[in-house]
Design brief:
The chain has a single domain, classed as Divalent-metal-dependent TIM barrel enzymes (TIM Barrel). 41% of the residues lie in helices and 14% in strands. The strands form 4 sheets. The protein has a 4-stranded parallel β-sheet with strand order 4-5-6-7, with helices on one face. It has a 3-stranded parallel β-sheet with strand order 1-11-8. Helix 2 crosses helix 3 and helix 7 runs parallel beside helix 10. The protein is globular. 48% of the residues are buried.
Length: 292
């Protein structure tokens, strides 16, 4: 039996809006929870209490790290211990783990934010960097499982793992019993990945998911012009759910067939709507319209 817990990411509100207002508006829009972050400096119980004041539950948080850098390994593993403990204490059994941006420069001299949406064959990590990434990710996964928390790899345009080829290569190198998946549908679509094929192929490994939508016409314009990440964003790559190119009814059918049980986090990184609240309400209404 599938079970979808519908949360909303805070990113649309930006960093200037007080957190209490953000949580209040997420609740007002009809979501069950929002991602919890260790970076806020609160204890797990303080986080539970704060979210509870708005009728919300903490949802899985996010650890981004330079997993391909061997000199960062011990720092990353210590962060993983702290994040896993925090996730367990706030009641979450998953943690998103992403490769981060980290100023990675390709052999062509551009960083991955400059290459967003139009990554070429020579822009990926080297063999040694892939080995380090996979080895460190396996170690992170083993550490978080000790706390009962599954590390779920999270793809992201502008990071060092963006394309289907890059994701597939990484997933072949990690232990599927230790490293799970928490994909982002919008970033898959932006990278040119067939979202449904990807989620069908990896359905058994998906334990939580970020659902975003994108404007395919903006994607194609930006790809042709070789925009950087921020130019895509300014030109409206992100849309509310249901307004872009991702086929969410088909996606949720795939998850249902796989018996998915977990958090589904709706996000619109940058909205063209009058407010973040309006954006969140539109996406929540769309999800209700498809039975969620």
């Amino acid at each position: 039996m599938e079970h979808f817990e519908i949360g909303c990411g805070q990113i649309t509100w930006g960093s200037e809006i007080p957190e209490e207002q953000v949580l209040s508006e997420i609740a007002q829009a009809g979501y069950a929870g929002a991602p919890a972050s260790l970076r806020r400096g609160r204890s797990a119980q303080e986080t539970i209490d704060l979210y509870g004041r708005y009728g919300l539950k903490p949802a899985p948080g996010y650890l981004g790290a330079e997993l391909w850098r061997p000199e960062q390994r011990e720092t990353i593993l210590e962060q993983a211990r702290q994040y896993a403990r925090f996730m367990r204490e706030v009641g979450c059994t998953e943690l998103y783990v992403a490769g981060g941006f980290g100023g990675y420069v390709s052999t062509g001299g551009q960083n991955r934010l400059q290459l967003a949406g139009h990554v070429g064959p020579g822009d990926s990590l080297s063999d040694a960097e892939y080995e380090c990434f996979a080895d460190t990710l396996n170690a992170v996964g083993a550490i978080t499982l000790q706390e009962g928390v599954r590390s779920c790899f999270h793809n992201h345009v502008g990071s060092v793992i963006e394309t289907r080829e890059e994701i597939d290569r990484l997933l072949r190198m990690v232990d599927p019993e230790i490293v799970f998946l928490g994909p982002d549908t919008g970033h898959l679509a932006w990278a040119g990945v067939d979202v449904l094929d990807f989620c069908r192929d990896y359905a058994e490994r998906i334990k939580t998911i970020h659902i975003k939508d994108i404007d395919a016409a903006v994607r194609e314009r930006g790809r042709a012009a070789e925009w950087d990440y921020h130019t895509f964003s300014r030109n409206g790559i992100f849309t509310e759910l249901g307004a872009g190119c991702v086929d969410f009814p088909a996606l949720f059918d795939i998850l249902r067939t796989a018996g998915f049980q977990g958090w589904v986090i709706a996000e619109t990184d940058v909205t063209q709507q009058p407010s973040a609240l309006a954006s969140a309400q539109i996406s929540r209404a769309y999800l209700r319209s498809i039975g969620l």
